[in-house]
Design goal:
Blueprint (H helix, E strand, L loop, with lengths): L8 H12 L4 E3 L1 H12 L5 H15 L20 E3 L2 H4 L3 H7 L12 H15 L4 H8 L2 H7 L12 E2 L14 H21 L6 H38 L3 H16 L8 H18 L11 H4 L1 H9 L5 H17 E2 L5 H6 L9 E4 L11 H12 L7 E5 L5 H12 L6 E4 H10 L4 H5 L2 E2 L5 E2 L12 E3 H9 L25 H33 L3 H5 L2 H6 L14 E7 L1 H17 L5 H9 L6 H8 L9 H25 L2 E6 L5 H5 L30 H10 L8 E4 L2 E4 L6 H17 L4 E6 L2 H9 L8 E3 L4 E3 L5 H9 L2 E2 L3
The chain binds 2-hydroxyethylsulfonic acid.
2-hydroxyethylsulfonic acid (8X3) binds next to loops.
């Protein structure tokens, strides 16, 4: 509900107001046109089939030039739209179509005609052919029962949760710079030259390189054709337009789309349009987990901005307006997940096409420039949750930058999140990157980063519920949610453990068992993805793929660094539970294991005294070595496991603490835990303290995070850290300086990520009561921000239950 201050916000605000009025809808064109094309190309090389589908789309799909827009292009009809990717989990389409309009997390409207098209023309073709079905067939019974429920739709068990069947790639960043410098025309010319040079007798050249190069050429033709169709439409609209100002804008749009992305961009405006066409066409090509990111926009766009500014062609306000036009384009593409699991992972219509700012140049100097500040200003002034803004921080980040970052955080919408070069860069170096590659990383997801042209691993990975592993220790391999079925290892009756060491060893066995099944899943996922998905556009924008003529979704690209992640779900929930057992059962003998189990089985009803004891035991997030040492062992043991088996599958499968919103659905399968957490409520999120468990202030949270890290290992990746600050604690100039100092402390402790909600719980409660008054209230969730009133009640309650820090 922010006042709009500047004249140039009017355009983007008007567009936004129009599109937010309605619930997002399903748009069938992408699913339908891909299906039509796939029917025609059976038996051909997969990469070529994908390029043909893209060309068919470019030729036939409806194109749009939106009212008032300056940056044009959308993938679906007016309003907020979600696309169908039936190649993923289209076997569940007919069931999903019935559920989508009314489901609690991220519902979508469907036009009855479109529903008919889906059921009659799309779904039948994919039955028996989807990745989801093939993966289920490939999993042995022990892995299967930790992955899917034995129901018709193979819904998730939320224990070892695969994420590869609801997205065809992990978060990713293209090399946009090459599009701006060479254009797709230039990339096409290079592919044609290589095609002409192929050895006509070589089987590799004929069977592998030829289809790849032909696919590149066709993909370039497709995006150029699609852009030209926008130029045609803009020209036509210009001819019909009575307002001379808008007619001039439409003519400029037409000229721009005629030129880019075929040719190198010549101005900031052309660069913006070329980049938007590229990312939008990439969204048409495939569903990239949490959406294709934007990379270092303040770096690759800066030369265009600088040249325009020096030539008097653009002002800072005009550049900001173009950014905002792109932001509202992004806001209309909604990441549609058919499965409940996908929807629940990304509540609030989440997608975070991260824009990276700041950090260092590939030469190691500070990289901030005028565009960095324009992007920060845009986030402060324009009330929108897309895109996500990620600020890289390093030891030589200028004070002005740190202050502007702090001011932006204080404006309350959770932007920007911070990533720490002092942690990220050495880790990337240790995994084989060169200095210039590591220093040039882009943020690509909640807390992930990519080195465009060096990263090559796109297989989505498992989210693993380690609070479930704890239940398996308590119930000898079972979970209360799943009754008598033995899901984990039978490590013995809970009451019989004679020492904490024995109980802890049993937990670590269960932990390793879940990791084992995650690796089995991953092995099959890597193998099967190569048969199901290709990404000619993505491969064209990755130098190593272009050099080797191998599609990015194939298991090995020569020269690539493969970085994957396994998600440690419920880190603080597990630490606090184990700390409570150690202290209260084995050291102080205040309760027995029998009493503890009974209290948990009854969800603490009638056992409030026990629950209070548990809640007051040592907990992670308070700089208390008692709890933190347990956390460090959990992390180290998991890293040791992944180090060994990463080598076998040839991918760094690092341990990561980055849940999106999945700590809510994962919590719904875990009964009461020995940290006093009630049954089926959310688990702790990322590397944050459990909800309400931190009472020593925000610096103690940083220190716990620091003390649980194993800096001598490198099989770890992002650790997402949420901190909620009361507005009073950062008020005024003094508050800004305190926040800057806090950020500097976080940076010096070499922690990976941090993000802030500057918000009173009172405001959130009011928004629950009067959603109509708080439609624009944006909150930070888990690596992204969302409109509070579009979240489920469970997630809203979870946000309120996070401790609000009153002072540093
Ligand atoms: C998390 C996204 O794709 O790494 O931000 O799971 S992904």
């Amino acid at each position: 509900n922010k006042p709009v201050k500047l004249e140039h916000h009017t355009r983007a605000n008007d567009i936004l107001a129009r599109v937010r009025a309605e619930k997002p809808h399903v748009d069938v064109e992408r699913g339908l046109l891909f299906t039509e094309s796939f029917k025609q190309t059976e038996g051909e090389p997969l990469v070529l089939r994908w390029a043909k589908a893209l060309y068919h789309y470019a030729e036939k799909a409806t194109v749009y030039v939106d009212k008032d827009q300056l940056i044009v292009g959308r993938g679906g009809g007016e309003g907020r739209y979600g696309l169908l990717y039936p190649e993923l989990d289209g076997d569940t389409l007919d069931l999903a179509i019935k559920k989508l309009p009314t489901r609690e997390s991220s519902p979508f409207d469907i036009d009855p005609e479109d529903a008919k098209t889906i059921i009659e023309d799309i779904a039948p073709y994919w039955k028996g052919k989807t990745f989801h079905e093939d993966l289920a067939k490939a999993l042995g019974p022990e892995t299967m029962k930790l992955t899917y429920n034995p129901d018709e739709a193979l819904t998730s068990r939320y224990v070892v949760n695969e994420t590869a069947s609801f997205r065809s790639s992990l978060q990713w960043v293209h090399d946009y710079d090459i599009v701006l410098k060479k254009g797709f025309g230039g990339l096409k010319a290079e592919a044609e030259a290589r095609l002409a040079e192929l050895d006509e007798f070589s089987p590799i050249d004929n069977c592998e390189k030829r289809p790849f190069l032909e696919a590149e050429i066709l993909t370039a033709d497709a995006i150029i054709l699609w852009a030209n169709r926008h130029a045609d439409l803009a020209e036509q609209q210009a001819g019909e337009e009575s307002d001379p100002k808008r007619a001039a804008e439409l003519r400029r749009i037409a000229e721009t789309c005629r030129w880019v992305p075929e040719h190198p961009a010549r101005t900031f405006y052309e660069a913006m349009q070329s980049q938007w066409f590229t990312q939008l066409f990439s969204r048409i090509e495939q569903k990239t987990g949490t959406i294709i990111s934007n990379g270092r926009m303040d770096q690759y766009l800066y030369p265009f901005y600088k040249a325009d500014k020096e030539a008097g062609r653009i002002t800072a306000d005009e550049a900001q307006e173009l950014f905002e036009c792109m932001w509202v384009d992004m806001a209309q593409y909604i990441d549609l997940y058919l499965s409940d699991a996908g929807g629940a992972f990304n509540e609030g219509y989440a997608h975070w096409e991260a824009v990276t700012i700041g950090g260092q140049t590939p030469e190691g100097y500070d990289a901030t420039n005028e565009l960095t500040y324009i992007l920060l200003k845009s986030k402060r002034e324009f009330p929108l949750n897309y895109p996500d803004l990620a600020a890289r921080i390093h030891t030589r980040s200028p004070k002005r930058y740190l202050r502007e970052v702090a001011r932006t955080i204080k404006s309350g919408e959770g932007f920007p999140k911070l990533l720490n070069d002092e942690d990220v860069v050495p880790l990337l170096l240790s995994k084989g990157a060169k200095f210039d590659e590591a220093l040039d990383y882009s943020v690509s997801g909640c807390a992930e980063c990519r080195m465009p042209n060096r990263d090559t691993y796109t297989s989505p990975n498992a989210y693993i519920n380690f609070a479930a592993a704890l239940e398996m220790v308590m119930y000898n391999g079972r979970m209360l949610k799943y009754g008598d079925e033995v899901l984990g290892l039978q490590t013995g009756e809970f009451e019989d453990f004679k020492s904490f060491d024995d109980l802890f060893a049993a937990f670590l066995k269960q932990q390793n068992n879940l990791l084992k099944h995650a690796f089995i899943q991953q092995h099959e996922i890597i193998r099967l993805r190569a048969e199901h998905f290709a990404t000619p556009l993505g491969s064209m924008l990755q130098k190593l793929c272009r050099d080797s003529c191998i599609d990015l979704h194939q298991p090995k690209i020569p020269g690539g660094i493969d970085l994957g992640y396994l998600e440690y779900m419920g880190y603080a929930t597990v630490i606090d539970s184990l700390a409570a057992i150690k202290k209260l059962v084995f050291e102080e003998h205040v309760i027995s294991l029998h009493e503890l189990k009974e209290a948990c089985e009854h969800n603490f009803e009638g056992y409030e005294v026990i629950r209070q004891l548990l809640k007051n035991a040592p907990a992670y997030g308070n700089d208390d070595p008692y709890a933190d040492e347990i956390g460090k062992i959990l992390d180290r043991t998991a890293q040791e496991f992944t180090a060994k088996y990463s080598e076998q599958i040839g991918v760094h499968m690092d341990i990561r603490l980055v849940p999106f919103t999945s700590h809510v659905p994962f919590g719904k399968v875990v009964s009461a835990t020995p940290d006093g957490r009630q049954a089926f409520t959310p688990l702790s999120d990322g590397s944050s303290a459990a909800q309400g468990a931190d009472h020593e202030g925000p610096t103690a949270i940083l220190l716990s995070n620091y003390l649980t890290k194993n800096f001598d290992h490198n099989e770890h990746a992002g650790r997402l850290l949420n901190i909620k600050l009361s507005p009073g604690c950062v008020a005024g100039k003094e508050g800004t300086e305190k926040l800057v100092e806090f950020i500097e402390t976080w940076r010096d402790l070499k922690l990976w990520h941090v993000q802030f909600n500057v918000m009173n719980n009172e405001t959130l409660r009011e928004a629950q009561k009067h959603p109509e008054l708080y439609r624009n209230l944006i909150v930070r969730i888990a690596g992204y921000s969302a409109f509070f009133t579009e979240l489920s009640k469970d997630l809203q309650d979870e946000l309120i239950s996070r401790n609000e820090q009153e002072a540093f």
